[in-house]
Amino acid sequence: MRRRWSSVPDAAAPSIWTLFLILLLGQISVVNPQFGANQQNPNINVQPQGQLNQNIQNPQAGSLFTGTGNNPYYGVNLVPFGPEAGDFEVNPGMLTAGQTIDLHMYFPFYGGLYNYTTLSVNGYMGFATVLDQGPTINVGPEMTDWPRHEDPAMIAPYLCKQQIPQTISPGMRSGVFYRLMMRQSMFGRGSNSNMNLGGTYQSSFFGQSASQACPGTADSYVRCDANADYFLDTMMNWLQEGVAGAQAFRADAAVVVTWYNTASAISGRSDIDAGQLATYQAIWLSDQTARLSYVIFNYDRLGFDAADFRANSRSGRCQAIFNGGNHTGVVPVDPTQMYKNTPKVLAQRSGVPHMVRGRYMFRVDDVVRPGGCSNKTGGTYPMLIYPNIVNMLGEMTVDVNAICLDRAQTYILMIEQRQTATCTILTPAIARCHLPKIYDWGTKTVYFQPQSGGANDEKAFVGYIYFVPPTLDPMRLDIGNVYDWFKNPMPSQVMPISWYPRNFTNPDIETHLDQFRIMDDSIYAVQLGLYVVAYREYKDDNIKKFRPEHRVIARLTSYSNRNTYDYRFKPQEEAININQVEQWYMNDWERTHELYMYRFGYLKLAPIRAQQDQFQAPQLLSGLVSAPISLHWLWTTNNPRYQTTTYNANDQESRAEYVKKKATEMCHDWYDEDGAQWNFIRDVETNSSCPCVEAQAIADLGRFMPHPRCSQAFRDITCQVSIGARNCYMSSQNILSSYAGDGRGFASENTARFPTHYGQVCCYDDHGFLMQTSYQPVIKVTPEVPYNPGFPSRAYEFGTAPYMGQYEIPGLSAFHNDYMPYFLCCKFADFRCQMFYWRRPSSGCQEYMPPAYGEVMGAGSFNTIDNDKFIFNEPGVYNFLYIPKTQTTPEVRIQVRMERYPNRRIDFSLLGRYMSQQDLVQPTNATVITGIVLEATGTDRVHVLARKDTRRFRYRTSIVVGNIIRYFDTMRIQRFRGILIYVNNVERGQADIYVVLEEAQIGVRVRESYNIDIDRLTEYQESMGMLNIDLSVPPQYGVRPDGDKAREMEYRQRYNLPRVAGVMRPFPDQTSGSFMQTMTLNDVNSETYRQQIINNYRVQGTGEPGSEMGLGSANTMGLPTENMFTTSRDEDKQFEVFPEATMKSGPIYKAAPKYETGMYRFFPVTGQMLNQRLMTCRDLQTQNIINLQPLQSQITEQYGATQCPDNPGAIIQDCGDSIPCQYDYTLTNAKVLGMNAKNEWNIFTTERQDATRFCKNDLFPTE
Predict the structure, then answer these.
(1) Which positions ≥6 away from 1062 have C-beta within 8 Å?
(2) Contact indicator for 358, 77 with CB cutoff of 8 Å
(3) Which residue in 21, 134, 393, 605 is deepest, having the highest Cβ count within 10 Å?
(4) Residues 977 and 893 in one domain
C-alpha cells in the first residue's frame, strides 16, 4: 500500500523504523518546539499522565492530531490543534448547519461586534443562518437576493460543500476543531498565577480542570493560561512580520479553528484515498477593547477546488472570502487570475512567503484590508500603509504592504503630484519607504512599483497617505504642556518628553539581509538626539523670492532608545534640561545675530548618525516632530550675546528681563516689516467679515468653522492665543478676493474670485458677542485678565496651495507671520500689544451678511433654506440642492437618499419559527435620510452614509471620498480636493460630521440620530440609523435667509444669479408666505406640494415600483438625473472594485419585494390621518370595555397592533403642539426620537431667528 506523506519543506520522509519508535514512545505532554512551551519549571509538580493507547497499531491521539514531535501528518504552517492542544471537536450532528460557540467577549469584524460564531464543515465561521441549498453556497451582493434570502457575514477560508469522511482508513483522522485562547491579564491574573500547582503545559486530552478554567467562562475550550499568553505573543510576532502597522496591535484573545482532512461534498472512497482532502486553519485575533482585529489563514493542503464529484466542473466552486453580510461587500483572499482558475493555489502560494507557504493575513475590524503581499498585477489592489497620517515635514518612514518583494529589485513609492520615496525591503511582505518633505495638506494617492516598472506588469498597487501640518499632527512628539513653551520665564527648567521606542530602528542595520526580523528587540537599540529646528521665511537672493527655511541649530541632549520587551507598548519618558545644549550648530556670530531671526521652531527626535561632523548641522534622519514652540528660552542658553550683558546668567529674573528686551526689539522689527507689505485687512474685512454673534457663526457652515485648537466643539486644550474667549471660529477656506482688474469696479459681479493666503479668526465671549481688539486695552488692565480677541492672519492657518512658498506653509507660516508676533508683542514685551493689534485689528462685522440656513431632521421634517416648513415622506434619491455654474460660482450638486424606516417592533427571535428572512425588515410609512452625497466643480465626491443595522457600534456613519472609506479616529480634520471635512468626536461613533465645499462656500452638517449619547440609552443596543442634515448657503447665491422671494426673478436677472433649487428650496420661483408661520397639520405630506417635489427633484428609477412618473417641467432647468450614489467620477472608477462601492450604492434598509407592492407599498400619512389615528388609539387605550363582540374584539385588537404606537396617550401629552414630535413619535414608535425631534425643531427655530436677526435689510442694492 502506498503511503502519502505530507509535504514538509527540507525534511526527508521518515523510515518505517522511525515511525515505529515515534508511535511507541510518543508522549501526550510533548509540546511543539516552535512555541517553546516545553521549558520546564523546576518548582512545578507535573501531574502523572496515564498510558494511553498502548497498542502500537493505534497511535496516541494527541501526537497524531497536533503533529508534535516528528509527526509526518502535520504541516509546518499550522498551529497545534486537536485534543492535545485543548481543542474541542464540532459535534458530528452539527457539522453541516454549524455549531455555535460562545466567544465570551466581543470580536470586531467588518463593522460589527460578535460574541459568538458558527463553525461549519463547509469551511466558514458564520454569524448568521447560511442558505446552503443547491451545489453552491452563495454569499455577497452579486450572488444573493437579500433580504429575501440570507446574506450572512462570515470568515470563510474555504467556502464550499464539504464533508467529514465517514469511511476512511483506520490510520486517518478527520474533523473540525476549535478553541478560544484568552490572555490571563484579562482576568486580573499574571503569568502562571491561575495554574493548578504551577504547571506550564499539561495534557488537555480529557479537558481542563476546574482550577484552570477562565473566570466567568463555563466552556472547557476556553484557555487563559501561560500557554495562551505565549500563543498570543507568537501570533503578534507573526503579524509583525507580515502586516504593516501590526506593531501597534496587542492580541488579547484568539479563536483557532482547524478543518482537518475534509473532503468535497460528494467525494467517494477513491477520491479520499487519492488524497483529495483539505486541511486549513483560521486564527481570529482581537484586543480587549474590540477595536482592532486580524485574521490569519493557514492552508496545509487543498486537494479539491469544487464541491462536485472529483472536482471535474465549476459547479460548487470553492472560494476563500470575507463577507460583510447584508450586502455590505465581499473581499476575496487572493483576487488573482490563478486563484480564479483553481482555488487550490492558495496552499502553494503565500501572503508572507518568507515565513511559510499557504499563509495569509488580513485586518478585519472594519472593511477588510489585506496584509502581507500579493502577486496581483493588473487592476487595482489596496495597499496597506502604516502610518497613513504623516507630518508634511516629511523625513519619516512608512511601512507598506503591496507586491511580494524581491530583494534584487529596487522599489519606489510615487506620491501623486509630488515626489518619490525610496523604499527598502524589510521582509518580502513589507517595504519601508523614507518620505521626503512634502509641502502639502490633504490626501495624496500613492503608487508602489518596482523601479523597472516599464518591464513588468505590477500596476495594481494603489493607496493613499494623508499629509498634515505639524499643528494638527496626531502623532507628534509629546513634549509636555505646550502652553509652558510659550511662557517667559519658563515655569520649569526641566520639561518632559515621551515617545514609543518601537517608532525607531537602528539605521545601521542592514535590512536587506535574510536574517532581519522585525520582532527582534536588538534592531530598536539606537542612540537618539533631540534637535532644535528653527523656522523662518527669508529672502533667497538666488531665486529673488522669499522661501521657507528649516535649520537645525542645536542638539539639546541624547537618549538611548529602550528596546526591551517591556517597552513594546509602553512609552519611554525622559526629561529636557532647557538650560543645557549638548551641541550648537551655530557659531558665536550666528548665535549673536542670526538666532533672533528665527521667531519659533520645533523639536525633532531622530537617530544620531554614526559618523557626522561635530560642528556641522546634520541631515536628520526619519524621526518624530513636536508641535511648534517658541525659541526664546534658547536666547540665554550658552549665548555669547547674553554673556556680554550685565545680566546674571544664573538669575531667573535676569533671563526673563533679557527675553523681554529682545522681544521688544523683535516686535518693533516685525511691526516695520509687516507695515511694508500689502494691507490685507481690506480684503479680509470686505470678503470675510466676522459674524456679529456666535449664533451666526454656528449657522455659517460654509464660510466659518470651529477653531481646531480654540473651540469647545473640538474640546482641544492646545489654544495659545485666544485665552478668555468662550469659542473661536476661523474661516473654513482661504479668503476669496476679487480685488484685481475689473473686480475693483462695477463689473465685480462678472469677475470670478480667487483665493488669497489670508485667513480670519473670530472669537466670542460668554454672552456670544464678538470680541474686539479695540476693547483690549480697556478690559485687560493687568496681564492676568483673560481677554484675547481673535484677529485676522496674513498666513491662513491651513496654508495655501501649492503649500511651498512664503505665507503658504500650513501651520508654520501662520506661526511665523501672525502667532509669534502676538507672543513677542503681547506676551513677552511690555506695552507693545497695541502695536500688534494695529497691524491685526479684529473684524467689526460691518460687512457681514448671514447665510440661508435650513435643516431636515428625523422622519422628513424640513425647514428649508428659504424658511418653508413641511414634512415630506417618499422613498427615493432626491436632488437636495442644485446650483448651476455661473461666471462667479461653481456648479454644486447635493443629493440625499430617503428610505422607509423599519418597524422596530419586529421580534428577530421568531426567525425560523413563525417568520422568514424576508420578514425581518418590515418598512413603516415614515421615511428618513440615510445618506448624502456632495460635489462641486473640480472637487472630490463625498458620501456620508448611515451604517446598516448591527454595524453601528464603533462607527455610526461611513465617510467615503473618491470611493475609498476614510477614517477620522486620530485625524479629526481632513482636507481633500476642494473639500474640507471635520468630525466632532465628543460623542462616540463619528456621529457629527461637517463637510465644506471650499470654493462654493456651502457647508453641510450631518448628524446621525441627533448625535445623542447612545451609550446612556440602555434599552438600545446601537443608534437609530437616520441622518439629520443642516445646510448653509452663503449670500452670493441670492437666497434670502428670511425666505422673502418677492423680487427673486428681478435679482436673478439683474445680477446674473443662479437658480438655486432642490428639496431644501423646492419652490424657487414661487412666493410663499410660510416663512411667517409655524408648521401645522396641513403641512404634513400635503398633496399641494408632494407631487411637485417628487416630479421635480426625485431621480428617476430610485422610487418604489409603480411610483415613477414622467419628469416635470422643472427638470428642464438642468437638474441632474444621475444617481450619484450608484455612479462614480471617471477618476474614481478604478476603486469600484473595493467593497466601499457596495456600501454607498445600496440602501441600508432594503426590504423584500413584497413590501414594496400591494398592501405593503408606501402610503403617505397626512396631518389629518395622523391626528385621527392618535385620537382613535388614545381612545382604545383608555376605554374600559372588556366584553366586546368577537368580531369587534378581533378588529379592535388588530387595529391597535398594526396602526397604533405603544403609548398614544403619552405622545399627545409629551409632544403638545409639536408636529415633528407627533409624527416621529407615532410612526417610529420611539419616544427618544419624538422628544429629540421636538427639542431639535425648537432649538433650530430659535437659532435661525438669532442668526438672521442682525442681517442687513436687503442683500442687494436698490435703484
Answers:
(1) 878, 879, 880, 881, 882, 894, 1097, 1119
(2) yes
(3) 393
(4) yes
